Amino acid sequence: MQQPNEDRFRHRDLNWLSFNERVLQEAADKINPLYERMKFLAIFSSNLDEYFRVRVSQLRQMKRVKKSIRKKLALRPSKITKQIIQEVKNQQNDFGDIYKNHIIPELAGNGIHIRDAKHYSKTHKKFVESFFKDKVEQHIEPIVLDLKKENELFLKNSVLYFLVTFKNEDKLAVVNIPVEECGRFVMMEDVQDEHNITYLDEIVRHEAFKIFPENDITGIYEIKLSRDAELYIDDIYEGVLSEKIYKSLEQRTDGQPTRLLYDAKMPKEIQKKIRKLLKLGKIDMMPGGQYHNFKDFFSFPDPTNNKKLHFKKLPALPHKTLDKSKNYFKAIAEKDQSLHFPYMSFAYVERFVEMAAVDKDVTEISISLYRVADESELTNSLMKALDNGKRVTVFVEAKARFDEENNISWGRKFEEKGANVIYSYPKVKVHSKIMLICRQEGDVNMRYAYIGTGNFNAETSAIYCDHAIFTANKYITKELQRLFKVLEGELLIPREKNLLISPFSTRQEFIKLIYNEIENAREGKKAKITAKMNSLEDEEMIELLYKASNAGVEIRMLIRGFTCLIPGIKGMSENIYITSVVDRFLEHGRIYLFENGGEELMFYGSADWMNRNLNRRIEVISPVLDEDIKQEFKDILNIQLNDNVKARIQDPEESNMYVKRKDGEKEIRSQYEIYNYLKKKHKS
User: Fold this and answer.
1) Contact at 8 Å (CB) between 237 and 249?
2) What is the pLDDT of residues 302-357, one digit of tens each?
3) Smallest Cα–Cα separation from 453: which of 483, 482, 433, 480?
4) CB 306: neighbour CB atoms within 10 A?
5) In what order do the strands lie in the sheet containing 217-227?
6) Cα–Cα distance list, 361 to 327, 389, 476, 604 (Å)
7) What are phi and psi of 279, to 5 degrees?
8) How far apart are CA 369 and CA 354, in angstroms?
9) Is residue 234 left, alpha or beta, with left meaning phi > 0 and alpha meaning psi from -120 to 50?
10) What's the CA gap between 398 and 369, in Å, rounded?
11) In whole angstroms, what is the distance from residue 555 CA to residue 548 CA?
12) Residue numbering of the annotated binding site for Mg(2+)
């Protein structure tokens, strides 16, 4: 008997909180050095900010959709939002416990003390007074409010403020904490081997009487307002439903408040006053600790220079072929070449583009850019290629969330240099990570392709785990060339037989591959699906995986982020086992492996099994055709599947339990094992 819909699918926004809990677990895990655990607190905080700006904002807007449409789509925004708020409160409590009872004492144990205003020494007070006068005061912009009059209060998104109360209860004030101008953390004078650091917040708090010299302050409470990002309805709903939702929403001002984080010590009557001033609902109020914006811990200073407080450096590994090659075209023509980030350097990609830019035989370079770096060797090489008369086509994704401005700016720079620049289509994002270079070699027009799982971005490649392959395979490169012609408007469909390209063929091909495993299982053959991705949300794919599980197909998945599939349920998903690895680097690659009756088929690329990746984005999933590379990818996949240090089990209870190591079993921390594996494999 089929389970009710709500028992068959998790809500993506609730399960995302389970992912962020795994990040918080890393902050508590003493396997990680102290400063790295502080960075995980920063990642947790940063993740949560974006979550409220995008996901919770979307839920809030859905409450304004007509009831008939909400009912049709089974939307329950109020119920889900309440569940989110409760879970976030629980996680914030855990966060506070980790910070106060673990991080602070361990910092002190290493001679690093975070001082608040109450515990400033005479020397500290003298320093603080001088620092405030010289560096801070000029950036302070106090706003005094008379509550007996009509007030309009605008707080900037994610900026820290103090809410100040006075003996006169009809008076309130808001003071900005100028972090952008002065930094969040300030080093004070040291005593012997002791290092003293204070928050900028505490300096402003200590000097508040200078901002309000009337000397009638009764309370100072930190607050931070999150405002929504643009509403990306097309990321979830499509076609007619999407249009109905848009029409059902009234015109709204971008940047609507979604959450006010406030010091839990703030009295209830003051909470009511600020809520009224900002026109917030009760559900928008989120109690927190004394400090907010813990994402600033990315820049927390280490005055000790103690290497033990940080991850040991892992030097980028040399690629056994490309490292020595002075002609990548020759090396790739002879054999496909794979790259694995961050274990290997992104410089190999940059060098390839540089070679193409100056090579007299290269005629064309086509590339899709999803998140463009501010300045990079790659963009400089593309500019050089234009100077050298190459035809350069750049597809710029103008709607890459939070990167729109930078992407469009680069698009204009390329256009000014003479590039053929194409911006994103309405309601279609180009999320693929692809590049094609055409080179005239005698009478032959050779094509060289790069297909990856990560962005063309040197900075993110140092922290994201991704995979890529250079290939000169004539079938793959021809289909990629057709795709670029689709992007340029010369063709309507790419007519692919080897590549899986969304929204044209990816879904259909994956469905065929899964049904093939189902048929093999029914015939008594070995049937298995192994899939690594960031997120799993598409209901059609999930239902098909349930069907495969019930047919006896063994399904093993690695999902870093959220999953709407519920594994391990008898009669529904008992043959599905999912783990998630959260560690030093961000797992970002997608690899799909099908048993195929003993003749395994492997694919990799940019698409998760999410509705948007299958239906509304240009994505490229490529078969891994080179047998050596296929084995390399499989070895890497198996190392991750066997992680027993940083892998968590995604079970029906969402308990995030670590995989337990069996007695006598080797300790496998997959990211380090992969590094060692590649080091050995690519040794000269």
Assistant:
1) no
2) 999 899 999 999 999 999 999 999 999 999 999 999 999 999 999 999 999 999 99
3) 433
4) 14
5) 143-146, 171-176, 160-166, 217-227, 257-263, 285-288
6) 13, 11, 21, 30
7) 55, 50
8) 17
9) alpha
10) 9
11) 8
12) 371, 401
Sign of the dihedral through C-alpha 20, 22, 28, 31:
negative
Q: Which residue has the tokens 């609730």?
A: 14
Strand ranges (DSSP E) for 424-502? Answer: 429-430, 433-441, 444-452, 464-471, 500-502
Could you tell me the CA-to-CA distances from 434 to 382, 476, 508 in Å, in that order?
A: 14, 12, 21
Quick one: angle between helices 506-522 and 539-551, nearest 10? 10
Element housing 199 (H / E) = strand 195-199
* Tokens at 283, concatenated: 């559900």
Backbone angles phi, psi at 172, to 5 degrees: -135, 155
- Judged on CB neighbours under 10 Å (0-12, 13-18, 19+), 201 is buried
Report whether pLDDT(426) > 80: no
Structural tokens at position 379: 């963009």
DSSP 129-183: HHHIIIIIGGG---EEEETTS-------TT-EEEEEEESSTTEEEEEE--HHHH-
H/E element, 540: helix 539-551
Alpha helix ranges (H) inside 52-76: 57-62, 67-72
Q: Is the pLDDT of residue 675 over 90?
A: yes
Summarize the annotated binding site for ATP as residue ranges. Answer: 47, 464, 560, 588
- In sequence order, which residues have a C-beta less than 8 Å from that of residue 484 and are 6 or more positions away? 366, 393, 395, 434, 436
Binding site per annotation, positions: 47, 371, 401, 464, 560, 588
Q: Which residue is it, tokens 């290997």? A: 344
The answer on pLDDT for 673 being more than 50 is: yes
Q: Residue 598 is encoded by which pair of tokens? A: 């003993």
Contact 534, 9 (CB under 8 A): no
- This prediction has a pTM of 0.91
Enzyme catalytic residues? 431
Query: Could you tell me how many helices (H) and strands (E) the chain has, helices first?
Result: 24, 27
Q: Which two tokens stand for residue 451?
A: 């297909």
H/E element holding 617? strand 617-623
